Amino acid sequence: MSQCIFENNVLKKIKAFKEKKILVSMSGGLDSTVLAYLLLKNNFKISVAHVNYSLRGNESLKNEKFVRDFCKSNKLKLHLKKIRKGKLNKSIQIEARKIRYDWFKKVLIDFNYDLISTGHHLDDNIENILIGMFRNPSRNNLTLIPEQNKNILRPFLNEKKDDIISYAKANKIDFSVDSSNSQDYYLRNRIRNILIPEIERIDKNFTKKVSDIIEEISSNKIEFEMDNLFIQEFDYTKINKQDLENENTLKYFIENLKNFNFYNKKEILNFLIAKTGKKIVSNTHTLLSDRELFLIKRNKFIDSNEYELEMGINQNPFIIKLEMSDEAKKPNSREVCLYSDIKLPLIVRRPKIGDTFYPYGMKGKKKLSKFFKDKKMSIFAKQNQWVLSSRDDILWIIGERADNRFIKTKGKCLKISI
Prior knowledge:
Elements: H1 3-14, E1 21-25, H2 30-41, E2 45-52, H3 58-73, E3 78-82, H4 92-110, E4 115-117, H5 122-135, E5 148-149, E6 152-153, H6 161-170, H7 187-202, H8 206-227, E7 231-232, E8 237-240, H9 247-256, H10 265-272, E9 279-281, E10 285-290, E11 293-298, E12 307-309, E13 312-314, E14 320-325, E15 335-338, E16 346-349, E17 356-357, E18 366-367, H11 368-374, H12 379-383, E19 387-390, E20 393-397, E21 401-402, E22 413-417
Helix pairs in contact: 5-7, 5-8, 8-9
């Protein structure tokens, strides 16, 4: 593959991020240095992040110096993290990766970057498949590195290592060499340095064949995600935000919002990056951002009236029965037993800002808003919630939890059931 084809392939994938602030993970090795060079050459807005793990003595320092010099000569902001020697105690590769990504995400938030970009390539994905086969042969371990995962972008993921090497040579790109890559202590290195070259001697088309498998797996995964994107619940539809990380799935989502009469693409795109609680409304439905989900519900009138309850069967806002009983018992989602001297009428109403109660089975007081949050109730569910009250006291979050102060579990009681 010529260097022009390689560069154009990469640019096609990342052209949508031209105006984004990108943090490039740069070890100083071939892949990450070529990535930084290519982004710089094409006027992307980049800064660099480098982690020195202090594992290889002077070589680690040389890698750090190489990255420092690269940033200085190209006038790039450098974020540097140094790990004290001996701090990595567990599986070094796994722990190092966790430290690296945790720090990258912190830098991304602290300095307002839009994306983290890494130099992972096709060969890394092939190694991943083989590692999975060795470590857990009883499972389906064709686990792939995603091209984009939330705010992590890997522009080289479908490109061969040989093409990255050719591009570096053609553009005279200097890079730092990591001697640990040639050592066969780690399973990944043994697969990279011994197993794959041996397989390629047997079948020179091995990489191409695995690449086709990866493409098919990715395609099937996208189709599966599309088929299972809109999940129908009792009275609303939910979509996992994580399922929209793939560009094709996102396009499918936006296109199918037309079924709910959402047509304004600009409004939808702004909504996708909005905080929890944001909603947009069509003439038939409401689309709501709620933590890890988007929720779609048909618009309907929300009854915000207050209803007085008397003894016997009450019809509004739903069938709710009040009766005296000689056998109190512990509360459940359909029934509570209260002290028999509670004054009527009781009130069924919607929760109000500042409402508090003393949850049955727990110590102390709690705001209803905190109780709903801990239960991870959606905004739609909260809108549909009713409470039973007496004056300013909450007696029962109906169907959820009663108040400790008014519950009777033995003897004569006022039984309330729905």
